Amino acid sequence: MHRQRTHLAARVTHVAKALERRGIATTYKVHDRALANRASRRQLSGSPVELDETQRRIIEALDTDGYIVVPFDELIIDDALRSDVLAQGDTFVADTERGLAAEAEGAEAALRRRAGKEFVVRAYSFEGVTLDPARDAWFRAAISHRLLDIANSYLRMWAKLSYVDMWYTAPQPAGAERAASQLWHRDFDDKHLLKAFLYLVDVDASAGPFEYVGGSQPGGRHNETRQWAPMRTGRFTEEEVNKHVPADAIQTFTAPRGTVILCNTSGLHRGGFATERPRALATATYCSPASLKALSERNYAPAGDAPADPAVRFATN
Ligand SMILES: O=C(O)CCC(=O)C(=O)O
Fold this sequence. Notes:
There is one protein chain. By secondary structure, the protein is an alpha+beta fold. The protein has a single domain (2-316), classed as Jelly Rolls (Sandwich), CATH 2.60.120.620. The protein is built from 10 helices and 14 strands. The chain has helices at residues 2-33, 36-46, 53-65, 72-75, 79-104, 137-142, 145-155, 238-244, 289-294, 310-316; strands at 67-71, 112-114, 117-122, 129-131, 160-169, 184-185, 194-199, 211-213, 235-236, 250-252, 259-263, 269-270, 279-287, 300-302. Strand 2 and strand 3 form a beta hairpin. The protein is globular. The termini are far apart.
């Protein structure tokens, strides 16, 4: 009797979860086609932006390949902003290394990590931080028109800035296997996605470089492998990727400090499997309003009054 009840309860939970997943996916689709994203597409077409040559080149590459690598000084041309961001990165790296050293000495773990992805130490994580652009240079860069106009133009709508953070990935212990986002995957929470990764240290092959299958974004030339769908989670084995993707489509981004990778991570990607050297980067995610309605969570609240600029206000609220 007890065993039967346990079995039934498990089945009910399984069915309820499946229904919930279907409901979330339906909410996303409705918002993508008819509601939030439609309104957002109108916002962009109602107030078109002027892009310069660099921004146009970036969007063209993102459309074709799903990624582009840009030196930070081409992306952010404001010298003071760039140097503030890099200084903020240096402080984050120094604080994290001090925290890791203290933990190694037996201090209670005080650094921000997320369950299941403990190999990444985060500046903010999902702990409800309030970000003030006057004090947070990376946030300021993320909402600068230089970057926001690229995100909006690539996504063909006013984007939401859903995630702002800095990550530090310490080398894994010898013999560790790839786990979580170190394995090939597609982000399941939006197909209208643009992530920025700014390397804060030199990243070589031993520091867990970010990797991407060029053209694996929705609509791309290498998009056949288990295509993106809302809530479709799961990892891809190396064999599966190699079977469907030519070797030269796999991009491994070893690069110096001050390199930015912009990329649509609903395409196939992985990274952060540091083996010898640590990797540190600043990251920002732009997604569609449909994603925030159904599938994503914002990791910060903007400080102070709503920004006067309508596209920035929209992105951060
Ligand atoms: O840490 C990495 O390089 C991978 C990051 C990732 O999978 C993501 O941001 O979606």
